[in-house]
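Final report, Chapter 2: Outcomes

The project's central promise was a pipeline that accepts a single protein chain and returns its three-dimensional structure in a standardized token representation, suitable for archiving and comparison. That pipeline is now operational. To close this chapter, we reproduce one record exactly as it appears in the project archive, with the input sequence first and the structure output second.
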Amino acid sequence: MKNLHIFFALTFLISSYSFAQAPLTLDQMENSIGTEFTLNGMQSGDAGTAGNNQTWDFTFLIPEGVQNAVIAEYGSTNLEDEYPDANTVVSIGPDLAYEFRLATENEYSTYGQYEFGGFQSFYSNPQTLFVFPAELGVAYVDSFAFDYITVNDQEASMLGEIDMEINGYGDIIMPWGTVEGAYRTSGTISRVESFEFQGDTIQAFLEGTDTYFAAPGYPMPVISVIQGIVTVPTLDIVQNIQSTTFISNFDFVGTDDVVVDELNVFPNPASDQLNINFEKRDSDAVQIDLLDIRGRVVQSAGRQGGGFGRFQTQLDVSALPAGFYLLRLATQSGTQTIKVAVD
């Protein structure tokens, strides 16, 4: 990361689009402590195509490995001394492994991973995944270095460099819904890994491409794709790799307030109409809003239930993009939320 350079590919800007989208900034990322999601992995090298106003279809993604994850509080893991320059931690499992990141107004970087009883990595020169503000045509070069410990307690090291460009903008169609306003970052990666094998020091070389899709309202890249060729000359090994990591089941940080009783929201997921039933035992009216993943109100039933008894209302969701939303019920005494899906 010390050799990070950011510049504008002017010819790309002139030839590829005639108007600018809103750049992606750090404050649009969802890094609230307690935010939950699922990390999925599969063997796939499909990374979409570059270009403006794209629609990337990733509905084919089928997870081959699944881990629950949550944004944890930095300082709560007792491992922060190993990663003093990070400020964000993702708990996987949860609490089986941690990924330490740095999120600033300029960059989003990986500082290391810690797995209990397993793989551990410590970056002496962190790897920048993407930069802020993210705009079409922005390019950056970054070198990185880290040491790691394998599951067999063997020590090894890795050096590398990436040459990346933000070369796509559009919507991603995921198996669980549509992600709007995503930026695609892609480029080359070169990596040299050194490790001990049967008493000898072995080097493995990777030449390939990294691709990341980042979008407002998500805590990390929605999709990460790596593809390339690994060669180990000493052992006469040549191997193709293609790996995709993607997130799903994104959940909002909700509240524990209970402002209505016997809340029933159906169908969930909904495609046309969302029915909301609840019981009221006080005179406070309830403000009912539906928010998207960025916190914007996309539908509202206004103030309902100004009295005692059973109440019912509906929200029309037929025109909303598929995905996750937050139903919010607010009174003077508090706020109650529930996640709903639109398909």
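Archive annotation: DSSP finds one helix and 21 strands in the chain.
This record, like all others produced under the grant, will remain available to the consortium after the project formally closes.
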